[in-house]
């Protein structure tokens, strides 16, 4: 059962356990995240003071302070001057922020992120083929129109391309899947923005998106997944090239 939001600092501190001396801030944050996403702490719970957390973890107060500051930036905790630090949201609602932190603090492997994105996009296309509403299909068609209208404005094309994929993820009807894909795409965004850098590449990408849309209109999940798989091969190659 989740802890009482009005108390439980001693229980929280005890549950954390100690870390080895010299543990980096990233590991302090990981330990805090493990507890925050366990479901044992209710949203709005006031966390122990920095000094108490530092003592429980066996680390310096500065490490705790930096870890909490990072978690605040990710929207996981709310630091209220003069009041304390409080947990935000249910455990499930913290998933996107938690995943983003986990990917960012490690050594990011772009090739692995591209592979992960490919798998997620293919599954999204399959799901959307059977779950997309007529309104969602109209939205996707509108983004395709924007891609066609972009002409040689590659920045406008990239914006419409991104919007198409976001709308497709929404159409799949699975919020967790959408959030996972959003996190991965955001980590690759710096490369995605410059991946389509020729008109020829834009025309090829448009044709691939149109193939996905046709499969959705036919309610053909296998064809949608296959069309997206084809697109992910060329898109992945462009991303990998722009990341070099």
TrEMBL record:
The keyword Transcription regulation applies. InterPro entries: GntR_C, TF_FadR/GntR_C, Tscrpt_reg_HTH_GntR, WH-like_DNA-bd_sf, WH_DNA-bd_sf. It comes from the Bacteria. One of its GO terms (molecular function) is DNA-binding transcription factor activity. Keywords: DNA-binding, Transcription, Transcription regulation. Residues 22-90 form the HTH gntR-type domain. SMART domains: FCD, HTH_GNTR. This is FadR family transcriptional regulator. It comes from Microbacterium sorbitolivorans.
